[in-house]
Amino acid sequence: MVLSSLCESSILPLRRPEAMMLYEPIGHDPAHWPDSYWRASCPALPPCPPLARSSTVDVAIIGAGYAGLNAALELVESHGADVAVLEAAQPGWGASGRNGGFCCLGGTKLDATAITRRIGAAGAAEWDAFEHAGIARVRDNLARYRIDAQTTETGEIQLAANARAWARMQRAGGEVLDATQLREHGLNTAVYPGGAMTRAGFGLHPYAYVTGLARAALAAGVALHGDSRVTGLTPAQAGWTVQTAQGQVHARQVLIATNGYSDERLPGWLHRRILPALSHVMVTEPIAPADLQAQGWTRHLMAYDSRTLLHYFRLLPDNRMLFGARGGMSFRPAPVARFAREARQAFDMIFPAWQAVPAAYHWNGLVCLTTSRAPYIGPVPGAPGLFLALGWHGNGVAAASHGGRCAARALMGVADAAPRLTRRPPARFPLPRKLALRAGMALAGLIDGPLRPR
Ligand SMILES: Cc1cc2nc3c(=O)[nH]c(=O)nc-3n(C[C@H](O)[C@H](O)[C@H](O)COP(=O)(O)OP(=O)(O)OC[C@H]3O[C@@H](n4cnc5c(N)ncnc54)[C@H](O)[C@@H]3O)c2cc1C
Q: What does the alpha-carbon distance between residue 368 and residue 259 come to, in Å, rounded to a whole number?
């Protein structure tokens, strides 16, 4: 009964599209693939052909980003499974091919205290180990599949956005640097009074990484289909039938790895349990060595600030600055242009010596939040054989890579394959989500306060 109502909702024609899709269709349109710096600086993967027949596999995976491709590789290499991956566009079209390339700790909006309160000290330690294992997993993937992802130096600095945040950082202890020390370390800005260093993670070329995974999956025998949007999921005798425009796959199990780009009818259970949110990236023209010296920012270290609607930035190997900002509510050109202008104003305030450096690329994409403020890796309740792996909260380079592997092991029946924090199915958002997002952003703006020169 539960199963049939769930599946009915997943195959019914869309009656109220606005209730299923938070953003304008252009944001989900495979034909609209932003001209990012990443695609301009990396050989494209030859197009993966669409699924154009009926086939049978052990596991069908929906979505060819870090989560789906890592799951596919794990299933084939460690469990000998027969796997098909169905991607609406081409591998890496989603967030995995257009992110900031911070391979870092993260994946939840909960801090260690909140995690301990929710699942105890052992659960918090397990999550901490998962985050570090995610970074190690990406390093291992790069080495194992011989992917040249132009990695940059190890570590990450969180910069205090104001005096209050700086005082908090100093109280927390660890490796903190004040403004003078930041300058001495080649991390000078006109805004931040101090920062805290984490000796974990590294920068990478996200599109090189995801296309490298896709090549490895093809070489391992995964049936990887592009231009194959899944339009229906129906229970079949021994599993599920996964429908695309030109074909169908029968699979014992299905893993949905669609994160911020999810179709909330697939399955209907997902509806209103996730909150896709926009992140925006700008990449400048290369900055001349004299201008790097003039600003006093010469390191290729990953950096982000302590704001809720944070700014994140890092110098790329060719000395372009990548500058990211969370926020925005629409894919329409006018609001996107307005948001890009605001991000540029923040950039100019943080790095005044680079005000004349032109921006060469702008693009955006969707990350995925949940009500539990943590990812979900586990079965769809009431739908045997259907699994989800999503909700990386804006930090999925490492977490989705490792989370995809955990999901694969969970599918194969390995007990406790995913960390406890990720095993709680997210509840539905109680409020209309755009309203919640708008209210959340307004509140975050008040708490963060305006960015000000030091
Ligand atoms: C601008 C931006 C900057 C970011 N920066 C960072 C960063 O620096 N560090 C970090 O750790 N994280 C970052 N993230 C987040 C990170 O990129 C994501 O968490 C991660 O890539 C998610 O991987 P995924 O495989 O779960 O999903 P995605 O890579 O989004 O892949 C999902 C795929 O599912 C496909 N799909 C959806 N519906 C269907 C369907 N019905 N049928 C078939 N296919 C479907 C989509 O086409 C898409 O390709 C950023 C994200 C954005 C948008």
A: 6
CATH of domain 36-150+201-272+372-423: 3.50.50.60
400 Cα: distance to centroid of ligand 1 (angstroms) = 9
Query: Which residues have C-beta within 8 Å of that of residue 14, sequence separation ≥ 6?
Result: 20, 265
At the topology level, CATH places domain 156-199+274-370+430-454 in: D-Amino Acid Oxidase; Chain A, domain 2 (3.30.9)
* ipTM confidence: 0.99
- Residue bearing tokens 């301990």: 116
Q: Is the pLDDT of residue 327 over 90?
A: no
Residues 164/308, Cβ–Cβ less than 8 Å: no
Whether pLDDT at 81 is above 70: yes
Domain ranges of the chain: 36-150+201-272+372-423, 156-199+274-370+430-454
DSSP string, 90-103: STT-SGGGTS--EE
Ligand 1 pocket by Cβ (under 6 Å)? 62-68, 86-89, 93-96, 98-102, 104, 229-230, 257-263, 266, 279, 281, 324, 364-367, 390, 392, 394-397, 400
Q: How far is the CA of 155 from the centre of ligand 1 (A)?
A: 23
84: left (phi over 0), alpha (psi -120 to 50) or beta: beta
The more confident residue out of 446 and 151 is 151
Q: How many angstroms is it from 95 CA to the middle of ligand 1?
A: 3
Least confident of 12-21, 317-326, 351-360, 392-401: 12-21
Cα 370 from chain centre: 13
CA of 147 to the centre of ligand 1 (A): 19
What are the Cα distances from residue 51, in Å, to 57, 223, 243, 397, 450? 13, 9, 10, 27, 50
Q: Would the pLDDT of 338 be above 70?
A: yes
How do beta strands 83-86 and 156-159 pair? unpaired
Nearest atom within ligand 1 for CA of residue 63: 34
152 alpha carbon – ligand 1 mean position (Å): 21
Apex 127 CA angle, 124 and 129, nearest 5: 110
Residue 121 has pLDDT above 50, yes or no: yes
Could you tell which of 26, 256, 261, 304 is best to mutate to test the pocket of ligand 1, judged by most ligand atoms within 8 Å of the CB? 261
